[in-house]
Amino acid sequence: MIPGFGSLMQDVLWCFSQVKGTIDIGVTEADIISTVEFNHTGELLATGDKGGRVVIFQREQESKNQPHRRGEYNVYSTFQSHEPEFDYLKSLEIEEKINKIRWLPQQNAAYFLLSTNDKTVKLWKVSERDKRPEGYNLKDEDGRLRDPSMITMLRVPVLRPMDLMVEATPRRVFANAHTYHINSISVNSDYETYMSADDLRINLWNFEITNQSFNIVDIKPANMEELTEVITAAEFHPHHCNTFVYSSSKGTIRLCDMRTSALCDRHAKFFEEPEDPSNRSFFSEIISSISDVKFSHSGRYIMTRDYLTVKVWDLNMENRPIETYQVHDYLRSKLCSLYENDCIFDKFECVWNGSDSVIMTGSYNNFFRMFDRNTKRDVTLEASRENSKPRAILKPRKVCVGGKRRKDEISVDSLDFSKKILHTAWHPSENIIAVAATNNLYIFQDKVN
After folding, report:
1. Which of 54, 303, 333, 415 could bridge to 365 as Cys pair (CB 3.0-4.6 Å)?
2. pLDDT in tens, the chain (449 residues)
3. Rounded to whole angstroms, how far apart are CA atoms 371 and 361?
4. What residues contact residue 172 under an 8 Å CB cut-off, 6+ apart?
5. How far apart are the first and last CA of the chain?
6. Which Gene Ontology terms of cellular component type are present (predicted)?
7. pTM for the model
8. Beta bridge mates, 93
């Protein structure tokens, strides 16, 4: 348990406040944030957008003069990760949109992260430079090569101080391995390999080998007319490098063990909740599709997000989840209109807090939900520009389904479905959360800090 958080839970139930005003990334379609990820220490926060850019924010160092600024994140580096491409063989445009970012644990002064669009995964090195070499023998100060016959003396190059510069360089490009769109990447706990998953296949890569990957899951049928499900998300176990899970559009989760066979088409465990026949409807299959799957930090549990619920599964119990949380059950009566405006196909993500005691996921109207697994209490909070003043306390929001509406409630009919929070991230050890609302990034922290 994070110190001071347990008592806070019981007293005021996630009293989060704004760390600083909204970080507005931009206003165009290309500026819509498509992924958010803290690094392993929480000192850096990376966002990817539909324009193929990666923006990295760095946490302010604590100073004696301004200790309250410790939680603030400021822009550290911005770089173009992917460009739009065109597949001439299939006459298809390949979007530059960043689908996922995954950090590697820091081994030296530099940082490394993986970013992927629909087809290509790139390994980026982000490093600092505050010195530059001067006094070359074969180059002049402008970098032009000198005539060797004019060099009459040997100079020893020296390092001179310069303004701090953050450089992002692509170290590896992993391409041409996916026929379908990549939806997940996950770094293995051996830190030598990672996997990338698309709709029908999962590939295993070695960080040192870019021209070859190993196909570990292939669910493509011989006849595509017999296709009944697709892979929606995949993740490695946080501690066991041989174990991974992947979810499907049918609402099932398969746990695979790479020690069993080279091709993991046969799963070790199969997690599925039996459907209640009385709740069966035209939308049942669509809303049961799992959009995200996450191992807990302990490795004991799996969390899955479908359209209406978040479920927690125990690895030792396959027939039903041990916990089910209703995210926005009031939308059940609105499924027909949500189907017509395509919102029913939105893919919401879910995250654990550092101690696996609280889970967070997004909703519509810029609402996001938190569930305390110990007290079974939950709260709805809103990320909006109206309450984005620094240090402003977030007030819980409530949605009214029918009848009389109280002053502090919002009617389900007035929810804005164009404002949606699909991507969230939680600091690995502290109560700091990052919430992406369209093209705005909100950072909140627990008021205890």
Report:
1. 415
2. 233 333 333 333 445 665 555 666 557 888 999 999 999 999 999 999 999 999 999 998 766 565 555 568 999 999 999 999 888 877 888 999 999 999 999 999 999 999 999 999 999 999 988 777 777 887 877 778 888 888 778 878 888 887 778 899 999 999 999 999 999 999 999 999 999 999 999 999 999 999 999 999 999 999 999 999 999 999 999 999 999 999 999 999 999 999 999 899 899 999 999 887 877 788 999 999 999 999 999 999 999 999 999 999 999 999 999 999 999 999 999 999 999 999 999 999 999 999 999 999 999 999 999 999 999 999 999 998 776 666 778 888 888 887 677 777 888 888 999 999 999 999 999 999 999 998 899 999 886 54
3. 9
4. 122, 123, 207, 210
5. 15
6. protein phosphatase type 2A complex
7. 0.86
8. 86
Instruction: Name the strand (E) or helix (H) holding 6.
Output: helix 5-12
Q: Which two tokens stand for residue 220?
A: 């493509």
Instruction: Determine the distance from the C-alpha atom of residue 444 to the mean position of all C-alpha atoms in its chain, rounded to a whole number.
Output: 17
Report the run of H or E that residue 7 belongs to, with start and end.
helix 5-12
The dihedral over CA atoms of 298, 299, 302, 305, expressed in degrees to the nearest 10, equals: 60
Encoding tokens for residue 364?
Answer: 């519509």
Instruction: Say how far apart CA 178 and CA 214 lie, in whole Å.
Output: 11
Cβ-count burial of 25 within 10 angstroms (0-12 exposed, 13-18 middle, 19+ buried)? buried
Q: Residues 199, 204, 207, 212: is their CA dihedral positive or negative?
A: negative
Contact 177, 213 (CB under 8 A): yes
Beta-bridge mates of residue 399: 410
HSE, CB side, 13 Å, CA atoms: give it for residue 298.
12
Task: Determine contact, residues 122/81, Cβ cutoff 8 Å.
Answer: yes
